[in-house]
Specification:
The chain is mainly α. 69% of the residues lie in helices and 0% in strands. The longest helix is centred in the middle third of the chain and has 25 residues.
């Protein structure tokens, strides 16, 4: 009995050329990206009793926990904003980033049946989780503003800085989500260990403490972490005490674009073999 001939079809487009072509195709499929994002939000709390109330209760519960932990380790606010509000202002960007990574890491695997049946740019799957996590960012930010107003603090004019800061945060979340979704295909333990890793990163990011609380001899190294600068910048814009310079914000944007380019290149390079490997 003769062996059956197997023909493997691969893309003839050079790897580097897939990036601009992939971005153009992603724009062409923007309606599908929007639909999948809305669908993520629709099914998130579909079978729970409290529904979207969880979107408010979860950050509040996390806030209570972090306030206790932060107070125990000597955390404090360097402004006239109470310490719980100081942490709440930090939770908005952190929750968005962590939720994006946690949900997108296993997104490609959980969508294997759809990916195997229909063609569309595969990066839409992890990116839809990132865009869906923007709901958490918006809710947590609005909650912080309400809390500031209720505590007698006015909303500072620096809130306009939130727009560029959020755009940069989205770039980082998209970059890491693309990379992790590809890595998860080959290493299935990533989605399990990721929450533990993020917990460790939480305590090395200025969520419980201000950036100027870091010892002076370590601060220069600490400020090389773009996520630390973005969390500090986000909080500063919300409470009206910005300590991040424009140069540092530009630094985070440049590094973010580089990381996104690398992650997107890796994703598009692995895309032709994705259906076979999942």
């Amino acid at each position: 009995m003769s062996e059956r001939t197997v023909t493997v079809i691969r893309s003839t487009v050079p790897a580097l050329s897939r990036i601009p072509g992939g971005l153009r195709e992603l724009v062409a499929y923007r309606e599908l990206l929007g639909y999948m994002t809305v669908n993520r939000l629709r099914v998130r709390y579909q079978n729970s009793w409290l529904g979207w109330a969880w979107a408010v209760l979860q950050p509040l519960a996390f806030l209570a926990f972090l306030t206790v932990v932060g107070s125990a380790i000597g955390g404090h606010s360097t402004s006239d904003v109470p310490y719980p509000l100081f942490i709440l202002a930090s939770l908005s960007p952190w929750t968005f980033f962590a939720t994006s990574l946690n949900t997108a890491a296993a997104g490609v695997l959980s969508s294997r049946s759809l990916i195997a049946r229909v063609y569309f740019p595969r990066e839409i799957v992890p990116l839809s989780y990132v865009l869906a996590a923007l709901a958490d960012l918006a809710i947590a930010t609005a909650l912080t503003m309400v809390a500031l107003a209720c505590s007698g603090h006015s909303i500072p004019p620096t809130v306009v800085e939130l727009l560029p800061i959020c755009l940069i945060l989205i770039i980082y979340a998209a970059a890491f989500s693309l990379a992790l979704s590809i890595a998860q295909i080959g290493f299935r333990d990533i989605a399990i260990g990721l929450p533990l890793l993020l917990q460790g990163v939480l305590f090395t990011t200025p969520v419980l403490y201000p950036l100027n609380a870091v010892p002076a001899q370590w601060r220069a190294v600490y400020e090389l972490n773009p996520l630390a600068l973005l969390v500090e910048a986000f909080r500063g814009a919300l409470i009206g005490k910005q300590v991040i310079s424009a140069e540092q914000l530009v630094y985070t944007a440049v590094v973010g674009l580089i990381l996104f380019g690398i992650a997107y290149f890796i994703f598009k390079t692995a895309e032709p073999d994705m259906v076979d490997e999942i």
